């Protein structure tokens, strides 16, 4: 049993180490929410971007250049107004993927002020969130994500 646990831990570490994109939800200067992701490697590779919501879905294939990136929101060609619970995944050519969950609705959906202004994750080293607080009103798997910034607990300082 001990060997199984070690093997499982090593597999998990390898999956984490293979992540090539760093991303998160941020509030833009225009007050809208955007998903921003950056290639943290010096490599060029293809990804499939898949976004899903209760009222729409979209996907796109992109070639990521070294240190390049992308962002999606209401002013981009997708015209995506993010709302709480929307999911975006980056799927790599080897089948591995990363998924982020939008922690709060864009002002177009939620006319009260967006409350995580200044608490978004920078996508560089760790997370600038004021503190990890799990999502408590979603599915069980969502409890591993912070309701303020959408990142896992391990991203917090």
Give an overview in words:
There is one protein chain. The chain has 157 residues and is mostly beta strands. The protein has one domain (21-155). The chain is 10% helix and 29% strand. It has one helix and seven strands, in the order αβββββββ. It has one helix at residues 2-17; strands at 21-27, 33-39, 45-52, 57-64, 69-72, 87-92, 97-101. The strands form two sheets. The chain has a four-stranded antiparallel sheet, with no helix packed on it. The termini are far apart. Keywords: Signal.
Distance between the termini: 32 Å
Average pLDDT works out at 73
Give the SSE order as H and E letters.
Answer: HEEEEEEE
Q: Can you tell me the overall shape?
A: globular
* β-strand number: 7
Total individual domains? 1
Unreliable residue stretches: 10-17, 110-126
Helix content: 10-25%
Short description:
Keywords: Signal. The chain contains one helix and seven strands.
Please give a handful of descriptors for the protein shown.
single chain; 157 residues; three-stranded antiparallel sheet; 7 strands; globular; signal
Spell out the blueprint of helices and strands:
Elements: H1 2-17, E1 21-27, E2 33-39, E3 45-52, E4 57-64, E5 69-72, E6 87-92, E7 97-101
Antiparallel strand pairs: 1-2, 2-5, 3-4, 3-6, 6-7
Signal peptide: 1-19
Keywords: Signal
């Amino acid at each position: 049993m001990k060997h199984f646990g070690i093997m499982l831990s090593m597999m998990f570490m390898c999956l984490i180490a293979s992540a090539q994109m760093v991303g998160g939800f941020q509030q833009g200067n225009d007050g809208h929410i955007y998903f921003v992701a950056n290639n943290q490697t010096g490599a060029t590779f293809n990804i499939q971007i898949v976004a899903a919501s209760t009222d729409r879905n979209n996907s796109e294939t992109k070639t990521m250049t070294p240190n390049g990136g992308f962002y999606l929101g209401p002013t981009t060609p997708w015209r995506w107004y993010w709302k709480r619970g929307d999911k975006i995944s980056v799927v790599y050519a080897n089948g591995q993927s990363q998924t982020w969950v939008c922690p709060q609705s864009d002002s177009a959906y939620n006319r009260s002020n967006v409350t995580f202004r200044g608490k978004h994750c920078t996508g560089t080293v760790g997370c600038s969130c004021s503190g990890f607080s799990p999502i408590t009103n979603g599915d069980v798997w969502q409890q591993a994500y912070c309701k303020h910034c959408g990142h896992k607990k391990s991203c917090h300082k």
